[in-house]
Design goal:
By secondary structure, this protein is α/β, with parallel strands linked by helices. It has one domain: RbsD-like domain (RbsD-like fold), CATH 3.40.1650.10. It contains four helices and six strands. Strands 2-5-1-6-3-4 form a six-stranded mixed sheet. The longest helix has 14 residues. The protein is globular and about 40 Å long. The two termini are about 25 Å apart. One of its GO terms (molecular function) is D-ribose pyranase activity. Keywords: Isomerase. This is D-ribose pyranase.
């Protein structure tokens, strides 16, 4: 165990994060995500881990892109332009706290999201019982 690191940051996850290049994306997915369509390496954090806990652990060591207009993209299954899921608000707040700045987020519907996710460097899966959710984090320069 390393000092001041979340226990969710396993050796496999830290190695995957370290191997990522600037501008690469990480996909964070919860329950219900169509993982069978992905060829990206998957790191499972456990069935009792929430999306918010995973985002907090990852974003404590993962720099978000500052050049991108939106370094976070979330999967929108609600199909309501003014209805943002609670988990998206929470992840946006976690990201803003970790980056010490306001971090813009964009929403995408399933097909465009899957297209971007197929190019991710790594997928992190959590097993929370929350509604299906997924996020893309674009890596920046540390």
């Amino acid at each position: 165990m390393l000092k001041n690191l979340s226990p969710l940051l396993s050796g496999a996850l830290l190695s995957a994060l370290d191997a990522m290049h600037d501008g690469a994306t990480l996909t964070l997915v919860g329950s219900g995500y169509p993982e069978d369509q992905m060829t990206t390496p998957v790191v499972h954090l456990g069935d009792d881990v929430t999306t918010e806990a995973a985002a907090e652990a990852i974003l404590s060591v993962f720099p978000l892109d500052q050049e991108s207009a939106s370094p976070i993209v979330f999967l929108d299954l609600a199909d309501e332009p003014y209805d943002v899921p609670d988990v998206a608000f929470a992840v946006n707040g976690i990201a803003s706290d970790a980056e010490l700045r306001r971090v813009p987020m964009t929403r995408l519907e399933l097909e465009p999201f899957l297209e971007l996710a197929r190019n991710s460097s790594v997928m992190v899966r959590v097993g929370s019982d929350a509604p299906p959710c997924a996020f893309l984090f674009r890596r920046g320069v540390l």
